[in-house]
Structures are given as structure tokens and as C-alpha cells.
Amino acid sequence: MKTILRLIIFAFAFPAAQGEVARVDTELLIVGATESGWAAAIQAARMGVKSITIVHDGEWYGGQFTEQALACVDEDKGPGKVGWGVDWHPMKRSFHRSGLFRELMDRIESFNTEAYGSPMPGKPYHGPSTFRPAEAEAIFRDMISPFVESGQIRVFWKHVPVATTVVDEKLAAVDFAPLGEQAATLNVTAKLTIDASDWGDVIQLSGAEYECGADPKSRYNEPSASETVVPNEMNPITWAMIVEESPDAQPTPIPKPPNFDDRNYPRATHFSRKEFGELQWDRPAGIGAIAHWPNGGMASPRQLSVYTVRRIVDGFTSKDHRTSILLNYMNGQDYPLMRLPARVVEALESTEPGASQKNIVEMTRQQREIIFQDAKNHSLGVLYHLQNFVHNNAPDRANSFRNFRLSREFGTADHLPPKPYLRESLRLKAAYMMKEQDGRNRDGATKDAARERFSHVMYPDGLFCWQFHYDFHRTGRTFLQEEGDTGPWIDYETPGRHTRHISDRCVFPARSLIPVKLDGLLGSQGNVGFSSIVSAAIRLHDQRIHIGQASGALAAISLARDVTPREIPWQRHLLEEVRRGLCGGSDGLPLLLFPWRDLSADHAAFVAINRLSALNCVPIDVRDVDFRADEPAAEEWSIALQKNMEQQVPHLRLKKFALPSNATRGELCEFWWAAIKHTPLKQFTPFPRHAVNDADGDGIADTDDALPFSVNEPIVWELERPVLTAETDGLVDVGLPSNVRRFDFASANVPKANGFQRDIGLPFDKTKGHGWNRDVSQNARHRHALAEPERDAFLFTRGEDTWECEVANGQWRVTVCVGDSGHEQSNQNVSVEGTEVIENRFTAAGQFQEASTTVTVKDGRLTITIGRPEGNGNTAICWVVMYPATQL
């Protein structure tokens, strides 16, 4: 039995007298022991802040890692494959791990190795790094404990903000009450406060400006934003569950949760239309009428993947031989925040008229708990369904979810995590609001430009790197037509809110942590300055820790230099002090400042390369994302590096330095960094200031200027459809022979395409004369983006699958079409009768690739293979057209 070392640190005692308020004076107050709050505290402590106070509404450090039970690491991802991986799951990280996130993950994976025999004991499909939440929390606690034991950091548990004191537009103090009570028992006066709470509690109480819900296009002119928005539409919450094999593998079914209805889970269920008929959902027009139905009679691949997609510990290989699994989003477990069920609306309205129309961000804790309880029951319904319906169809009853139980590690009465997983919260109205168009490129129609380059905007005050797709889970909720909001529901993707466009390699600006007006306050966790769309891409494990480190470093320099945080991004020497604290100037591993793909924190030149890149000294090609530190430094590159340094550090006589001969690029950066790193920071070229609210004098106000020190035009970008040709429009050519055969690939509920025979992805059927090597019907997608069904819907594979159709032997002319009307797709491959016709093809959203070939059929079946076994991307096949070649 493994041992968990957990240091118990109690909250500080309060005065015994009833009604008396304990008063604490501190340099830095951090509200929230979330992953950001934890990181901010450690970073600030390492940078010399002597008095730090954390107040948290729970009892655990770690936020989404622990309290929210998101126990399978999500981190920056992009097309490049860097870092380490394993043969069964190569990582797709955008960058090597660095900073506190890497320190934490190294500790977690070291613990896993000792406890389970592997740093990655779960081997999940989603990603390799997993952990038990309680075990991770013990590591969070152990890492911060030296600062707590020394008294540098004080922690108060189970207290919530109830009031603030603002003096002369500066936050001065925050009052806290014990969880569940209203009267304040703790008053904390602080020079600076970081709001790292789940819902931006201090931001709301202080009167600082903020936003919540979807942004209309008129707000930030983002290419993926809608002209109008649905009230309260946000990324959904999910009440995650950790399940583990029951003792002695005995059945441990849970009770039926309140309001359970198996029709809530058509994506998880084994039942078929025969059992329930056509479920008609009241979705908006054009969204589709019925759910995607799994194949009846056996557990579908989607059901079986629940065992593997986020497995935390694999019992077959771990030391204790017991499997544990994170149930998070599969099988309709997400809980949308718009169009709530009638029972929830009624309960909310009983607390306050109009409460059901409030955004969850602005609800009281009592009101949120009503939503939370319904979300819990919905998640428990997934487990109940898996134990009682899918169980009967599980190929291996020994691995049935009936033999799993909810983990006991949380210490809660219901054995669920203390909090739901939050993907979106309040957004601080900051000195700069990050926008979608900043991180994406107008030339994204080509694979190279869309996938491997630095972002359109590289903020001059960047503090860390990020990259991910703008990832909204299904935000819509639809009820059965005949039962309305009193009956079962499913979630669905609302038009325009399920963009899967990926950002380019970006940095996060210091300005987005600073309120646009109020002083004495910094945002952190999810309470920072970005749009709703950008928030969907900056919500991951590593990103939240990086945000915490950045806010802690910003606070440390603000306190040390007695300046407001808002002054720091505009004064280069102060900004470089923050960067020094993050990268090479304090204890712990340095943090990646500039988004080089191949630069590891272990490299000797890591700090030098990062600091010089952030100083704008390193020559950079927007498409050259690898630094190649160990390659010889070309003469042209060396000259450009020195020239840039002379511009950025004009008072230093660089010519007096003798350059090393035959140096690598990394060694040359080390040489120049050693030459300037002790130079007084005020000798660096200062940022310009041409006008009070327009630093570069380009007519764009600083609050709207992504590049405030570079004269530029406003960044206006409409999401343009690619220019289409006859080979890329996804439409079948006219003038084909009369005996042509046309097949489109889509689910049965997609409207019929004129002249096409529908294939819905079922195995080959001799009666029909066509079909697949396996059931791929679950891989049908309908985007509702184009009018023609044959190019608005498709079947896809992430691996390799084969479709066959009975035809007469002889020569056939075949045209296939791949692409996706709603999303870009890469690495698409198609072969016909062994002849490759489409190879590693990228298509932008709304762009297709048609390819024709003439083949000879000898066995009575025309064979088309899509994808590749290694699964480097999705191949989306829309249609195939074929006719005898004698018709040519």
C-alpha cells in the first residue's frame, strides 16, 4: 500500500470572542489557493516578498489539478512534437515544460514512479501525465510548505471574500467570512492583492470592471465571434468523477441519482432507435433533429474508450494492480450554463426574482450551489448509466463499471470532488484585452503558415508562452420537443462557438493582468484580460500555473520598487526585472519567455536565449520556430544579433568584446548575455512615450493597441473563406456520364443530397453492396456551414479505414473529395485501389480537395482507403464519384 506524505497546515486561529474580527496586515494578499494562487505565492516568495497571505474557500491547494479533479494533464499543444513521449502516445506539446509547472510535474511523475512503477501510470489516450488528485495535492502542499513553515506565507482555509475597502481608486483591504456564513471574521489589509479565485470574487466586490459570457463581434471584431450572442453562453462546467476498481473487484453500484433519465445520455448508451424511437430535440433550426445513435447490441468503441481516454492508473501495469479513471467530458457529461432545466430555474427564482437569468459568474454562492447540485446529479447519471446499461453489453464483465466505485480520496460525503471543473469564468477588463486575431494569421489558408509560425502579434510585454486551439465544448442545451425543459436534455455545439482554429505560438502580456483602472489589484487564474474566445485557449494546467507565476513576479517587482503594477509594462527596466525573476533570476527552474519549439529548460543557454529573445535582440523569422541552439552560428545571423543588441543596449560598447570563434547559436547567446546581464537595466533602450494614452503616437489608444511601441495599423481581420477552384470547392463537376455512381458520407439525419446514395459508416453489407471495414458511424459530422449536404457533412478517421463498393471488374474513373466545411484539417490521405491520390493534404475551413484517378478493379470491389495507421490527422471524406472508364 503506497504512502502519501501530506503536511497538514492549519488555518491561523481567530479570536475566540464572538463577533470579533481578526486583522492581518500583509504585503501581498492572494485570494485563492488554486494552481495560479499557489504559483503566485511561491514566485513572490522566491523573489523576496516577506509577507504573503493566502485565503481560500476550500481546504486544498491546486485548483483544477486537485479540487476540480482534472487529473489528466492538459497543456499547451500544437502541431510540433517536442519534449518526451512514448511510443504509444508521442506528445504534441508546443513547447518543452519549464518553470514551476515543470517542477510540479517532475515531482508528480517521480511520485508516480515510486508508487506505481511508472511516471505515467495511466497511459491514457488523451495524454500521458496523470495523477490521483489527493496525491497531487500533497505535492502542491509539500512544495509550498517551506515558505509556510518559515512564516513568509500564511494560509487561511475555508473563508470567502464578502467585502472590500477601496481608497482613492486603490484596493486597500478585503473582508472574509467563514465558508457558509455572511459576517466577516477576518480583515486583511494588503499593499497589493492577486485575485486567483474561481469566480473573480475580489474583482466583483472591488468594483473593478469585468466581462462575462460571450463577446459580440462588435466588442473586439474577432473573426470567430457572432454578431449577436446568446445570454449566459459560456464554456460548460463539468463535475468530474474519479472512479477506481472496487475492493476485490466486487460490484459497487451507486444509487440512482435524482432526476435520472437514460435519454440524457444518447452518446453513452447502448440502446437503439428500436428501444426509444427517434428522439426529437428542440434544437434551433439547422442544428439537426436527432442525436447520434450508437450501434445497438454491443458496447460501442466510444463506450469502451471511457476506460482508456483519461485512465489515471492502469491496474495491469501498476504496482497495486488497481485501475482508476477520470470521468470528465465523455458521454455527454458536460453541463451547459444556458437554457437551464425547469427544476433549476424554479429553484433559482425562489432565491431571488430573475436569478435564473443571471450569469453564473454573478450569482451568489447559494445560487451557484443549485446549479452545482444539478450538475453533480447529471454526472452521477453517467456513472449510473455505465453501471446499469452499458454493463450488460460490456465484452468483458470483469472490467465493467459496475465493479468500480467513486474514489474516497476527496473526503466528501458524496465522494465527488469539492468543485466542478471550470472552463470559463469572469474576465478582468484589463489594460489590454487579448483578442483572437492577435494570435492568428491572415495567411492561415496554407498549412505552413497556419501551423508553424509565431503569432501575428508578439506582445512586447510578454511574460510566458502559450498555444492551443480555441476550444469550446458544447455550449448549447436542447430538450425533447414533446417534454420541453421538464424532460431530458443533451448538449450541442452552437453555431460559431465550436471553433477549432489553433493559435500560433504566442506570448502572454503583462498588461492583461492589470485592471484598466483600479490599482492595488492583479488578476490571475482565469480572471485576466482576454476575450471569451481567447479564454477557451488559455485554460490549461500549465497555462494557469504560468499565469500565477507571472502575477506573482509582477507583484514582487511592484512591491520592491514601490510602483504600481500598471507602470511596469511601460518602463523597460521594470519589465526586465519581472522577466529576470521568472527566467534565471530567482530559485527554481526558469520559465520559457519566448515560444521556441525546441528549447529545453535543461539547455545551458536557455536563460540567455530567452532573455535576449524577449529583449528583441535575437534575429527571428516568423516561420522558423526552432532556435537550434547547438547549430553553428552563421556569420549573417551573428552580425544581425550584434546589430540588434547595439540597438537595444546603446550605452554598452559591444565592439570591445572579442567574439568566440566557431560558436554555436546557443553559445553566442550565452556570450552576449554574459556581457550585458549585469548592465543597469535603465541603460537598455527605453520604450517610447509620444502621448499620455498613445505611447507610439500611431493614433491607436494604448488600451486598444496590441503593439503599443510600434507604429501600426489597427488589427482588423475578417475570417475569410479560401479562394476556391473547381478542385477545391467540394462540388461535383457537371457533364458526367448517365451511369455515374455518387456516394456521400454522412449520418442518416443529414438532408439527402440530390443524386447521391448515402453511406452512414456501417460495416460492408452484401445486400447494399458497399460499406466499411468496421463501424465508423460515430465518426459522422455535420457542420451546418454550407447549403449542399454532400460537402457540409462527412465521415472521418484518425487512423486508417477502408471503404468498398461492389462494381464490375475493369477500369473505373474515380473522384474523391476530402475536407471540412467548418474546420481546417491536416494530413489527409486517400488511396484508391492502392494508388495514392491525396497525400498529407491540408484543407482550410470550407476548403476541399478533389482528386481523380483511373484504376483497374479485379476482385469485384472498388477499394478506397482513407487515413494512415499512425494517425497524424483526421481524414474527412465527403463523397466519391465513379463511373466506368470506357465512358471517357
From TrEMBL:
Single GO term (MF): 4 iron, 4 sulfur cluster binding
Q: Which domain of life is it from?
A: Bacteria
In terms of Pfam families, this protein maps to:
FAD_oxidored
Q: Which UniProt keywords apply?
A: 4Fe-4S, Iron, Iron-sulfur, Metal-binding, Oxidoreductase
List, alphabetically, the InterPro entries matched.
Answer: FAD/NAD-bd_sf, Galactose-bd-like_sf, HdrA-like
**SUPFAM superfamilies named among the record's database cross-references:** FAD/NAD(P)-binding domain (SSF51905), Galactose-binding domain-like (SSF49785)
Protein name according to UniProt: FAD dependent oxidoreductase
Its taxonomic path starts at: Bacteria, Pseudomonadati, Planctomycetota, Planctomycetia, Planctomycetales
